Amino acid sequence: MSSALPPCPQCQSEFVYADGPLLICPECAHEWPANASPEPEEETQVVIKDSVGNVLQDGDSVTVIKDLKLKGSSLVVKVGTKVRNIKLVDGDHDIDCRIDGIGNMQLKSAYVKKA
C-alpha cells in the first residue's frame, strides 16, 4: 500500500503522517508544511567579509586593525597582531582563532583585515 504523502525530506522515512497543516515524521521528528515542496531547501552560504570587504575563508591569516580589550582581563590585542589559520563560525563573533600569548578567542570580522 503506497502512501499519498511524500517521504520525509530529512531521513526519507515513508511513515509520514498529517497533523492539521503539518506533515510529521515519527522517526526523526521533522515537521514541515503540507503544501511545501518535498525537496529539502538548499542552505544559503553566508559570506563573511573583513573590514575592507575581502571575503574570508577558513585557514586565512588576518591582521587586527584596532586595539581590542579583552573582557575580564587586563590583556589587550594590539593593532597589527597577525592571526593565522582562522576558522569561520556562526554568530556575532564570527572568527574563531588562537592568538600567541593570549590563547583561543573569537573575533568580529569588522576588526580584522585579510593579510
From TrEMBL:
Ranges for domain Protein YjdM N-terminal: 5-33
Domain Protein YjdM C-terminal: 48-115
Family the UniProt entry places it in: Belongs to the YjdM family.
NCBIfam families tied to this protein: phnA
Annotated protein name in UniProt: Protein PhnA
InterPro entries the UniProt entry points to: YjdM (IPR004624), YjdM_C (IPR013988), YjdM_N (IPR013987)
Gene3D superfamilies: 2.20.25.10, SH3 Domains
